[in-house]
Amino acid sequence: MSDALATYLHDHLAGSHFAIKLLSSLSDQYQDEELGAFARSLSVDVAQDQDTLQKLIDNVGKANLDLMEAVGWLMEKASRLKLQRDESGEGIGTFEALETLTLGIQGKAALWSVLAVIREVDTRVPAYEFDKLIARAQDQFQRVEIQRLSLARTTFGVHAR
């Protein structure tokens, strides 16, 4: 019998691994630039949230998701081809990487919100300060969104024809 909560948590854990790999790629591509420093800083935050999630998984229990982990690994490798810096130095790949991060962070905020509700019916979910975790995710979203919107100017700026 599968455990829906364990599966849900593992899906989010796989997403956090993807986010850290994506941030690592941005850090490498923009090593000596503001975006690289931003990616390194955000990666620290995401890793801390990942640790919190891992503690929850340790409490709730493991799910057999070897296939999902493999799919996540393949998606990460495939995305590296598309989400790379282009010849102009930035471009659509970097913009889409940031957009992918915003979507993942919104998912993380949704995770924390639902865990606060699940805690009321499932004693395996510890009494974390989910409101603080939600606020942290919202702050991360805003920080990435600033970077994404800034990059939109150069990515989608008017080109001479």
Structure in words:
The longest helix has 27 residues, at 34-60. 76% of the residues lie in helices and 0% in strands. It has one domain (4-155): Ferritin (Up-down Bundle), CATH 1.20.1260. It contains five helices and no strands. Helix 1 (4-29) runs antiparallel to helix 2 (34-60), helix 1 packs parallel to helix 3 (66-82) and helix 1 (4-29) runs antiparallel to helix 4. It starts with a helix and ends in a 6-residue tail after the last helix. The model has no long low-confidence stretch (mean pLDDT 85). By secondary structure, the protein is mostly helical. The radius of gyration is 17 Å and the shape is elongated.
Q: Mean pLDDT, as a whole number?
A: 85
Shape verdict: elongated
Strand portion: under 5%
Helix content: over 70%
Q: How many separate helices? A: 5
Q: C-alpha Rg, in Å?
A: 17 Å
The quaternary state of the protein chains shown equals single chain
Stretches with pLDDT under 50, minimum 5 residues: none
What count of domains describes the coordinates?
1
CATH architecture: Up-down Bundle
CATH class: Mainly Alpha
The major beta sheet can be summarized as:
none
What's the CATH topology label? Ferritin
How are the SSEs ordered, and which strands pair?
Blueprint lengths: L3 H26 L4 H27 L5 H17 L9 H27 L11 H26 L6
Summarize this structure briefly:
This protein has 161 residues and is mainly alpha-helical. The protein has one domain: Ferritin (Up-down Bundle), CATH 1.20.1260.
